Amino acid sequence: MIYNSHVGGNICINVLTKSNGIWEKECVMCLREVKSQQRSKDYKSYFIQESYRNKKGLRAQTIYNVAALSEEIQELMRLDLHRKRISEIEDLRLEEQSNFRDLAVLRETWDWWGLEDVLASVKDPNKTKHLQALIFGRILFLCSKLFLKEEAWGTLLEQACSLEKSEGFEEEGFYREWMGSAGVWSRIEHELFRRASHGRVRLVLYDLSSTYFDGEDPNRLARYGYSRDYQEEQPTVILSMATDAEGIAVHVEVHRDNRSDSTTIPKLLVTLWRRLGIAKAVFVFDCGTRSLLSLEVLMGMERGSVARATWAQFQELMDKLSLDRQPELWDRTKRMDVEKDGLWYIIAEREWLAKRYLERQEARIGKTKLLLEEFKRNARKGEDAFCLDSRVGRMLERCKAHKYIRYGIDRKVRFWWKLHEEESAKEEATDDRYLLETNLLPTEYSAKKVLAHYKNLCEANQAFCRRFPAYWMTARLVAEWSKRGVFKHVPRLLRRLQTIRPSLLSVKGKPAACLLIKISRKLNRLLEKTASLPAFLPAAGLGNPGDSS
């Protein structure tokens, strides 16, 4: 039980506890006013003091110094302790603020890293704002540039990037800003590299991929389309990207002509050395690149490499290994090192890969069962066995389930089939594993580091659809948050922040407090770990919901 009293002119809060049916005073909390004089000036300070009694006697301690609070808060505390009405109901107003706090987090990160200075080489302020909107849009809305106008409708993206409503996100404006950054791109890239790595890059990951531009453009930029797909009606465009060991991109380059890795890598090395001062790099390739650029070529260039081998190479290596070294179904080792024929192989495990392979295998077998039952019902009597075998074989090839099925014709010329369980069990034992081959020396690189390099490449492949600065911000956030113990997908975590409803409590038109509504303990811990809580304060607000278009 708590009640108020006045002791020596001080406002007190008395806390009583009930023991054996009798109320006993446990402690007394007082709001004390202390006056002092220094150099002929009078000063007042207020603090909350707690007095309590224990076995050793009467004790007192200062809980909080109220002098640091504003005069409005101090007045509210006095009124509350006097049991007086703080304000009339009509004077209170609870206004829900914008819930687009994902934009607030990105804007605060943008200001904290000083990315405004990175785009200083873009002289036109409107181009800088549009580029910032494109970067934020790539992180928050997984869509192309032309659909950003629809995805950003009703949000505060324009306000976060200081854009006027009349400017909007028109297609011509996007391509104009895209082309406007071409002349200053090397300076932007150099600034991003300097801010992320501080010149300490010792490893470079590389990948070569393709992309396309959509929409209509008077500069004919939209004509550049898919590459390596043998589409003669569309010229090709190739992207090459290099990242550091943490997966943060340090270089990206667009090639208009179709090329292979053997012609791109030497030029990329010259660019990295000339622009960023990187003289040595380790190249990491995805599955399929091994046929285009062999390890012998890289060894002749004195360059290290890590490449994912094909499934056929994986099975060939398994057949060469002795039975005691082959991974079994019950062996869930995360990593296995093998040296064979002068090369170092690493067999790694990925949990989601097993799930994907299992779902694909079940889908293929299920579809094949239905077709085989239908084929068995409609099989013609007296049909030639060779023709029947050819028809079933073609059908199984189309379903990609030839290795899962055994079939034939019995003595009564009847068609039969069954599942090949041994092949399914053999595939299940290795369906969550993939093979990496490298020319690096085990004495210089650990298997864990090689595996980490390939995982960084996989993350870079997924981010190719975004613009380079957007991927730079995402990878930088991942690196910063992982140091704080948060391993979450950046766009997914930012979308979760939209569930929080910040509200501003005003008394007689003056802001009194900021309330956070619908925030769970788990999400609150994430905000504290990622240091994103300041983005929810009124000073970081992006405006009211009514201000959005």
Protein architecture, described:
- With 549 residues, this protein is an alpha+beta fold.
- It has 4 domains: 2-86, no CATH class; 96-183 and 467-547, no CATH class; 185-350 and 432-462, no CATH class; 352-430.
- Helix content is 38%, strand content 24%.
- It has 18 helices and 18 strands.
- It has helices at 71-81, 101-112, 115-118, 125-140, 148-151, 157-160, 171-180, 185-197, 261-276, 295-300, 311-320, 351-377, 385-399, 421-430, 447-462, 468-483, 490-496, 521-529; strands at 2-7, 10-19, 22-38, 41-54, 57-65, 92-96, 205-210, 238-243, 249-255, 282-285, 304-308, 335-340, 343-349, 405-409, 415-419, 433-438, 501-507, 510-517.
- It has a 5-stranded antiparallel beta sheet with strand order 1-2-3-4-5, with no helix packed on it. The chain has a 5-stranded mixed beta sheet with strand order 10-11-16-13-12, with helices on both faces. Strands 6-17-18 form a 3-stranded antiparallel beta sheet, with no helix packed on it.
- The chain is elongated.
- The two termini are 51 Å apart.
- Residues 1-11, 13-25, 209-235, 288-294, 323-333, 461-466 and 538-549 have low confidence and may be disordered.
Features of the shown structure:
549 residues; alpha+beta; 4 domains; 5-stranded antiparallel sheet; 5-stranded mixed sheet; elongated; disordered N terminus; Transposase
Task: Please summarize what this structure is.
This is Transposase. The chain has 549 residues and is of the alpha+beta class.
Inertia-based shape: elongated
Total domains? 4
What structural class do the secondary elements suggest? Answer: alpha+beta
Number of beta-strand segments: 18
**Order of strands across the main sheet:** 1-2-3-4-5
Overall pLDDT score = 65
Helicity range:
25-40%
Strand content: 15-25%
DSSP summary: helix tally:
18
- Major sheet size, sense and barrel closure: 5 strands, antiparallel
- Distance between the amino and carboxyl termini: 51 Å
Integer-rounded radius of gyration:
34 Å
The unreliable regions are: 1-11, 13-25, 209-235, 288-294, 323-333, 461-466, 538-549
Protein name: Transposase
